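Q: Hi! Curious about what Molybdopterin-dependent oxidoreductase-like protein looks like structurally. Here's the sequence.
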Amino acid sequence: MSDESDATAGQFRDDEGTPSDEFGFPARGWRMLARHRPPGFGRSRLWRSPLRGPWLTSVFGAVLLAGLPLVIITGLLSYIAYGPQFGQAMPPEVGWLRLPSFDWPTRPAWLYRLSQGVHVGLGLVLIPLVLAKLWSVAPKLLSWPPSRSVAQLLERLTLLLLVGGVLFEIVTGVLNIQYDYVFGFSFYTAHYFGAWVFIGAFVAHVVLKVPQMIRGLRSRSFRQMLRTSRAETRPEPVEDDLVAREPSEPTLSRRGALALVGGGSLLIGALTLGQSAGGFTRQSALLLPRGRVSGEGPNGFPINRTSEAAGVTAESTGPTWRLVLLGGPMPVELDLAGLREMAQHSAKLPIACVEGWSTTQVWSGVRLRDLATLAGVSTPLSAHVRSLEAAGAFNQATLQANQVSDPDSLLALRVNGAELSLDHGYPARVIVPALPGVHNTKWVQQLEFREG
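A: Let's find out. The predicted structure is below.
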C-alpha cells in the first residue's frame, strides 16, 4: 500500500485506536470510500507547485476576508436602496431573508454611487484573488476521499457551497454588466438568493478556518517572503494536504505569485474606474461596456435603456403629451409649456446604475414637492411615478417621503442647459439624490402623491 493510502487509513482511527470516527461511523466505511476513487480525484502528482501551502493560501484568504464583507454589505445596501417596503426591490418576496427596511437617505447625494460602485468595482477587483485562492486549495478540493470523518464531511459541504456560491455570483454579476438581459431567468432574484448561499457558507468557513489562517500567516515572515527570489524558493514542510509531496522546480517565487495576482487586480481596477471617473477614461472601462452608450452634446452621458428599446416614440412625447398629477381632490394636467412656467430649480446630481457605472450632470426642472403642492397634497408620504414605457421591469417607481421632499428632487426638463434628449427621458424625467438609476424614471406621464 502506498504511503498516501496508509496515511488515509490511519486517520480512520481515533487517538485510542478505535476503528471509527468521533461520530461512531465505522472505519471500514471510509476505507471503502477511499478505494472507489473517481478519475482525476486524489492524484497528488497533478499538484506539484512548490508554492502551494498554508502560508500562501492564508495570505489570499486574509485579503479576501477583508474585501468580501464589504462586497456583501454594499450588495445588501443596494437591495434596500431599491425600496423593498414598496415591493419594488427584486425579488419582492424573500420570506425570512427579508432585510430590515428603512428610508433610504437622499444625503449625501453620491451615496448610491459610492455603495454600488464599491460593490461592482471591488467585486471585479477581487476576481483574481478568488481564482488564486481556488488554485491554492485545489489539491484539497479534489482530494479523495472527500472526508475522513463526519465532521470533515460537514466542513467539505460548507466549502462546496462557498466555492459554488462565489463562482455563481461572479459569473452572473459579470454577465449582467456585460450584456443586456442575457439570462433566461431573473438576474436580481438569482443573484440575491445566490448571495445568501454564499454568505452562509462564507460565515461558516470563516468560523472554521480563521484559526488555521492565523497559524499559516505566522508560519513565515511576510517581509522575508518578499525578499525571497525564485531560486531561493522552497516548499513548505509536508504537514498539510496543500503541500506537494513531490514538488517540481519553482517557475515563480511567492513574491512573484503575489505580484501576478495583485497586478491582475490593479489591471481590472484600471479597466473599471473609468465608469465613475468619466471623461476620456470611460472608454477604457472595458469590463462595463453597457455604460459606454452615450448621447451627444449636453446629453452626452451614458444611456442604459434607449427610447427605441422602451417603445417610446416622438409622437407619444409630442404636443399631445400631458403630465397627470393625482392624489388631491381633482386630477391636474400640465403640458410641457405649463411645466416650464413653474419655478425652475437646478442641481448637480449623480445618477448611478446597478451595473456599476455612474455620471454627474446638472439637471433643471420643477421640484417634486412643488408638484405635490399643486396636486393638493402638502405632505406626501410617497409618490408613485408612471412612465410612457408600456412594458418593462422599471416603467414605474415609488418614492419615499424624504425623496419627494428633498429640495433637489426634480421632475427634470433640461440637463446641462439643454432640453432632454428622447433617450434621456424627454419631455420629463425624475432625478432624485442617491436614488438607483432605474428608479429615476424617464418619460414620466403620471405622478400620484399619496398621504398614507
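A: A fun detail: The two ends are 77 Å apart (CA to CA).
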